[in-house]
Design goal:
By secondary structure, the protein is an all-alpha fold. The protein contains 9 helices and no strands. Helix 6 packs antiparallel against helix 9 and helix 7 runs antiparallel to helix 8. The structure holds fe (ii) ion (2 copies).
Length: 238
């Protein structure tokens, strides 16, 4: 699937795995996210299967991605061609470090909203708080493992032997993906109820950003970094 425009036959587009689509056409991430298509943990699924699962028309999805690409002033970064070291630096700076502050902030907000409104919404807010706490408890040690063990390994010449730790990271990602799905279901796609106060609205806005950020983050690792690291044996990771 090398021709990323309307020139691509629809049947070829439909058969493309999501991992390949999102890697070769990064502008598709936004469109898939909007339709709640799981591109980070189910990248092996074809566009046709993903559309069938969500009740979407393949031709319409193709048109939406073409439209986003046509609207861009400059093409998005192609992380499948950047040096692996630059990709890992990007993941740490853009996706890991901001979470050091954002996860505690969101947990404090979720605790506050549950404390103030939990009695009126006992089915929702305590569970939402616990899910935010579970996400933080998953993500913080996961990032540490990547930064202290896996990424240094992938920067070395031995990167092709990192099959076992990569499998562990993929399993972590799948668990995180399930927590994110629960978050989206609990919040009705991050839509606050009419009666929501300012803190509640701020919590949902922050969780929506967190969801998109984490899914993009996991996509870069599952679909780009890990397969490239296991297949590249040159000193490309500099
Ligand atoms: Fe990461
Ligand atoms: Fe990760």
């Amino acid at each position: 699937m090398s021709t990323p425009t309307q020139a691509t036959p629809l049947s070829t587009f439909a058969a493309t795995p999501l991992s390949e689509l999102t890697t070769e056409r990064p502008a598709s991430l936004r469109v898939l996210y909007r339709h709640r298509i799981d591109f980070c943990c189910k990248g092996a699924r074809s566009v046709a299967d993903a559309c069938a699962h969500r009740g979407l028309d393949v031709a319409q999805l193709a048109a939406e991605i073409d439209a986003v690409e046509a609207s861009l002033h400059s093409p998005p970064t192609r992380w499948d061609t950047a040096p692996l070291g630059v990709l890992m630096d990007h993941i740490i700076a853009r996706h890991h470090r901001p979470l050091d502050e954002e996860l505690p902030r969101l947990q404090a907000l979720a605790e506050k909203v549950a404390r103030v409104h939990g009695e009126r919404f006992p089915e929702l807010l305590p569970t939402l708080r616990d899910t935010v706490i579970a996400i933080r408890a998953d993500v913080v040690p996961h990032m540490l493992k990547e930064e202290r063990i896996l990424f240094p390994w992938l920067r070395s010449e031995r990167r092709g032997q990192a099959t076992a730790p990569i499998a562990v990271m993929r399993a972590d990602h799948a668990h995180l993906g399930a927590l994110l799905d629960r978050l989206a279901d609990l919040t009705g796609g991050f839509t606050p109820p009419e009666a929501a106060c300012t803190s509640w609205r701020a919590l949902y806005a922050g969780l929506a950003d967190l969801d998109e950020d984490l899914r993009t983050h996991v996509h870069l690792e599952n679909n780009v970094l890990f397969p490239r690291a296991l297949s590249e044996t040159t000193s490309d990771a500099a």
